[in-house]
Task: structure prediction
Amino acid sequence: MLNDDACLKCSLCIAACPIVRVDSAFSGPKALGPEWWRSAVADDLQETDPSVDDCTFCQLCEEACPAQVPVAHLIAQHKDRHRHHRSKVARLRDFALAHPHWIGRLPIGPDKVPRIFAKAVRLSGNADYPPKSPLSFSPRPSVPDIGLFVDCFNRDYGGETVQAAVWILHQLGYRVQLVPEEAHCCGAAAYASGRLKDAKDIASSTYDALKRTPVSTLLTLNATCDGTIRDEWPRYLGLNSPAAVIMPWTDWIVSHAPQQFWQRLSEKDRKVLVHTTCRGKVAQGEGSMEQLVALTSAMPVPLGIACCGAAGSYAFKAEHEDAAQALGKSAKAALDELDLVPEPESMLVDSGTCALHLHQYTDVPALHPALWLYKKLNPG
Amino acid sequence: MGAGATGLGVAWDLMLRGVAVIVVDQGDLAHGTSGRFHGLLHSGARYVLTDAVAAGQCQAENLCLRRIAGPYIEDTGGLFAAPPEVPDRLIDQWKQGCRAVNIPVAESVVVKGLNSRWNRVFSVNDGVINGYPLLQALARGIEEGGGRVLTHTRLVGAAEANGKIRKVILESAEGTQELAVDAVVNAAGPWAGEVAALWGDPLPLTLSRGVMVLFSHRQQPQVINRLDMPGDGDILVPHDHISIWGTTDRETALPEAPPPDYQEVIELMERGQEMFPDMGQWRVLRAFTGVRPLYRAPGSGSASTRDISRDFVVVEHPLSGAFSVIGGKWTTFRLMAQQVADRVAGYLHYSTPCQTQSHPLPPRLESFDSSGLAEPFLCECERVSTRQLQQYSGGSLSDLRTRTWFGMGPCQGTFCGHRVAAWQSLRVGVEQSDQELLNFRSERERGMLSALWGDNAVEWLLQRNIRFQGLGEPTK
Amino acid sequence: MRREWVVVGKGPSGLLSASLLLSAGYDVTIVAHGQGSFPLWSGTLDFYSVDQQLRPVAHPGDHRDLLSRYLSYDQWLSGWDTWRQILASIGVETQVDAMGANLLSPTVTGVLYPRYVVPGWQYACPVPEPVTVVSWHGIVDLDLESWAARYQLSSGLEAEIRYRPAPPSWSPRWTALHWAGFFDTEVGMAWLEHDLDEAAVGTNAQYPLLLPQVIGIRGTEKILNRLSLALGRTVKEIPLVAPALGGIRIQERWQRFLVRQGVRLLTGEVILVNNDGVKLADGRMLAGRTVLATGGVLGGGLRVNWDHTVVNTATGEAVLWSGNPEDLPVLSIGGDSSSYDVVGRSSGNWNGDVHGGAGQTLASVLKWWYSLQQEVSLAK
Result:
């Protein structure tokens, strides 16, 4: 990591951090990242800061850094070192949550986990958990134009979303293959909780799986997977990116769907809330979902917050209840500030866990843009 | 005269023999050469090809300092890496040289980041000296033993009677004072010529400057030397959080260390990238110069400064009781002090032998860890809080800097200068602390400007922006 | 004239350029890598606040010769209005002196410094007056006793000071953002109101009451108004050093505003600029005419190498530097390039650190904007 030591101390990372604003015990990205790293290198530092676990790994700090210090990734290393100071239960729970594609194979959804068990393994008591909604189909064209990356969440809890995304691509005349063929994960969940070795193993097994079904275009449904595969695999996980054009499904639709497609929709005078996730802002930026909404003639209204507080499985952990709730409440405050009349009927967000969390706090049904488009094209 | 390693070393030695001593320095402790070196505790391996005696002394003193000054020595170990052009013959000669003076040498594994073609690497027992705390400890020890240490005090004259030195005249902010003395040891380093001139016996002193580049992080766990004949740019020393890369060797006229010559810095960096190809990308903090006082033996002609012996000489002046000591190395400061003190003690008829080989230095002030304190850091880079400043209140901002290490990290005081100055203003008043802040800023800036590239260039501009736009500090 | 524009950089110059383009009906995409300098800036517009002898000046118009290097005096006058209107449209009210002179506003160290346009939350006055300052233990940048002594030196007037204990949730790692996040909550607000009630006892109610600039991020104006009403006196802030809440508030409101107006705010590293648009490091291409607001050496738009060669980071072009440090802040990039425009710090000629950073933003962006309008009218 060439710029790990370039910190200017300017605090731009602190300014970008959503947790600093809601968690008074959180030391902030500058202290937990580059400052910790500098002493870690010098002293082979065993000393760690327990508040490091309250980082959501949204990476907004790293994106803000003017000196290209890998702030979030230094914090991830800090988390990795701190792991050994944590309780056995927390470590066990984190190990399980770092493998979301395994959890997805369980016969019941996390929403059906008995409360007493959830409490015992330190799962949050006030988070909404996803119900099961597994994939019900898997198209296998002989020569696909497009590979749709089915991530750990959507494979088991986002069946409808995947189906909608495929249906729309079919409408546009593309032959779609779901990849990888079995349940896999890009490694983001493990990395975010500081399980770097697990992240590497999970990612390389996914990399191998993707190689087995090569495609020239790989579309992602969730920006976290997009950023992880496209950017972090080569930069931090020692893997190549798959040899394909990788881009979010939304960006692809916005740039490839012809005029006639959009003319089938007339959402005039409708306001649609949009939230680009923190990781989406880091991976690509804001504006694609707004463009998609505008193409339907509806009016996009960005929610205007940095991070909703879900952050993958962050909000599912008991020790993050307060921070996740505070961020959820700021999402609600941002919505109230918009003072939308009539109240918006839906909010577009490309992440399943963020959708759950935003729905929980704002009461506005949140869904993936693919599913929203599908519903608009298939009323009833 | 001189509160560097030599002066304090001599005073410590004499004090242990029972002599009443006073140490005087125009600046703070380590104001001159002792505060401007790379920090290497030599194993002696650097000198085995050119000066076996010096190499042997280094090795012996290295072991001795580890015994008596343990808290001030970091046992990093050192490596010697041979560039591909160095012939095996020379490497063998070097190894034999090491063995001859008992320097333990072992073949070592390849170092990460090192030029992959430099694949012959050997380990030796180099180390790192924490110069400032060591000298602060010596000063404390001298004072506890009844001696005095007068910093920011200048020697302006000497008086004699019957061919013997009797008095020295000192000047400081508090005024002029005369001290009765039986002997004077001139250990003023590069200023030794000026001091000796006060009793009319100028010294044949040659000054040599060396540039060093300081990087913000500890790039390597060990000292890394270039295995070759000693030359420019051949030592990388890890020092707490930072690394120092040096050095050059050019004749210079004045004792005051000049700002580094940019061309010299470039050459040093070019040389560095032969060894570490990535060095140009390392986060640089500053560059600085140290001035070595060298004794050019009468009749040695016009040899280049690199060829003048790093050995030291003791001069007894025609004026009885006046001694000068010139040259030498940090690593062997104790030995040097012993030999000077032997002469002085003899002159004063003290028969107690030298104690310093076995007498441990005063213990290190408990290293201050602010992490657990319920107060914020004023200096975030080096984790300095108000509590640490309070330990040393009484000094100027610059004194506080070398004692607490505030302002020494990656931001070079950008975010802590005004905080510490505000704390200081409660003791000395706003106008005085503003002046001290200005001195602090210009000292920091001088080093930054000498290595103005990469993120250090960005930091410097950020610092100016914050000083002039954010804080409203005067621009001149 | 092309309808699409790509603005590179999201600091003050980038957002100002984007706002102007948006107001004229262009399609605007902002792309940036790193945050930009808002969190290093209190939000005031300084305009050549010191004269040739480096003494503070009363009136920006005292420097007509310097002004005219950039714009005509009339252009300046309307430019300042434009600036205030744009800030008002994103929800930031500003104050100016009725006579068009500089206001005086104390810095965090107590120096009265001339500022031209000042955000409403920040304390500024036409002539010095005695003040009351309240701060809390733990705000390290603002040392009240030292502040009062320097304010006395600087203004000849008294500053009453009241140090208060920090709130119970305070920790030594708190930054300005932690404080602001705390005051943005109900609990924080209640604590603040109660604390100031006590702090104000025995102080002179005729004096304005000044607080460190940590009074919330989203709710600042609301909180300050509520406090002013409760205490029956003016309550304003003194800006701190980075992270600077003033700049952060402006940045967040401005970005939200632009995204809501349909501006895409993308994350990406520009590696090539030509007449068609820009290419990003991840392969994305953005079409449009390009304006670089990449911020010179300080902003990362220029990089100085160890051998003192200088490179424009967006285009890879070499830029000539004399090696003299004093020339570094005014280094201009690609002045004669026809494939992109340049604004802000990278446009050269103005040392923003000494002569007013935001003044430079305004000068360079307006100069570019007026010449663009001329180009448009010529084309017509």
About this structure: Residues 165 and 293 of chain A are 15 Å apart (CA to CA). The domain at 257-377 of chain A is CATH 3.40.50 (Rossmann fold).
